[in-house]
Write the structure tokens for this entry.
Amino acid sequence: MTLSQDLWFDTDKCFVNGHWIAPVTGDTLPVEDPSTGQITGAIARGTKADIDAAVHAAENALQGDWGRMTAVERGRILTRIGQLALTRVDQLARIEAQDVGKPLTQARADAVALARYMEFYGGAADKIHGETIPYMDGYTVYTLREPHGVTGHIVPWNYPMQIIGRSVGAALTMGNACVLKPAEEACLTALAFAEIAREAGLPAGALNVVPGLGEEAGAALSSHPGVHHISFTGSVGVGKLIQQSAGDNVVPVTLELGGKSPQLVFKDADINEALPFLVNAGIQNAGQTCSASSRILVQRACFDEVCEKMAMSYGALKVGPALSDLNVGPLISARQKEIVSGFLHAGDTLEKIGEGQIIADAPDTGHYVAPTLFAPVDARHSLAQDEIFGPVQVIIPFDDEEEAVKIANGTDFGLVASIWTDSGARQMRLAKHLRSGQVFINNYGAGGGVELPFGGVGKSGHGREKGFEALYGFSTLKTVAAKHG
Ligand code: NAD
């Protein structure tokens, strides 16, 4: 089945006020299949005028049916979106695979996660309550959880469906009206989501989608005075710009900016159990995962064993087109391949102990990079410090717990960490001492399930999405103090 056979909506339009409309300029951007480098279609190149229209539609929705809807009704619509998404999981997976180069199985997991977010948040809509506060005699004081108003969602290309699910899902649950700007490299499932939401009965204007370039549509959204909250996932550089715009408008912002997440392996760990997690957390989605584990810290007593076993796993990794559904697909773009190749070049003086294999019939025009494992690597090396966003991992030796924590906490980031050890006491100590938004013990969740609050410290960003925690972030608290004598 070709990509165009799977698409049942207009890809070159914006979704504003419940309708598919051409961007004001009429301009489009190409859709590229990263597996082949071929242009497969077009998306709208939305600009400030389209963002203005989308914000206006969102404001009207808040004054209309959407703003008046009860939490129960909002929950039902979200649940329905989830159910409809589930009926299209295979189709969404094929679309995503051909739009971002993600192997089908991984793309399918994203589609299931999108549906799961809608189910989770649909069920949560009527379960967020205010409280009463004992105050002075003659008063009744209570709090109300209210939507911010119009929320802006700027989404990257690496996990469009999951990131839309976690941010738009939570924002709609709390009664906000959303304007979504997907990444120019990966718009198709965002548009599919809009069409599914329309089919599920989401009132016009509650969700608006404007594809376009970051510096055009993205900047127009993040600086728009009609937007009351911004959720951004992407690079640190753009995150800083978003935070500045949000500062100018004095609105809250959630930033999820990636990481350099470590896994700490101690000699008392079950290495065979850890092995698939050590490798998969680095190569999943070709390493283009904000919570990718690109640093493996290993105690010297088991260093050789871990290196040897990981190198063997790397030797079995196959890289090829997304629809071939191998371990690793292409990178998103020629530009991303250039960035990752630069890092590999920086590793020329290091020992490369493992490498995956690009299959012979992978098109030369696709953006393929063989997964690469380096060891031993000094913790200060750029490959051990910078976010690579490609299938590259380094193994760093340590002697004891104190040194392991120092290395683990020794980058600018703090998104996810995991500890592999049999010692309960060490698990508890390290879970406290690791500077990270999530800590996994004897597993690695790469961001974890929809129920688990997720977000970073340091340059990994701030604010939390996922779980119930996101619902507090996507709402504001009003205190009402009634004096009745
Ligand atoms: P990016 O930060 O440039 O883009 C992310 C989103 O922000 C896209 O929707 C983009 O259109 C938008 N954007 C870009 N410039 C903007 C601006 N001035 N104002 C408002 N919105 C803007 O990320 P990228 O260029 O796609 O990737 C570059 C690097 O970012 C990667 O190599 C990787 O290290 C990192 N990254 C991290 C994540 C993550 O999940 N944390 C995701 C994607 C990329």
Notes: The pocket of nicotinamide-adenine-dinucleotide is lined by residues 154-158, 181, 183-184, 214-215, 218-219, 222, 233-235, 238, 241-242, 256-258, 290, 339, 387, 389 (CB under 6 Å). Residues 317 and 356 are 5 Å apart (CA to CA).
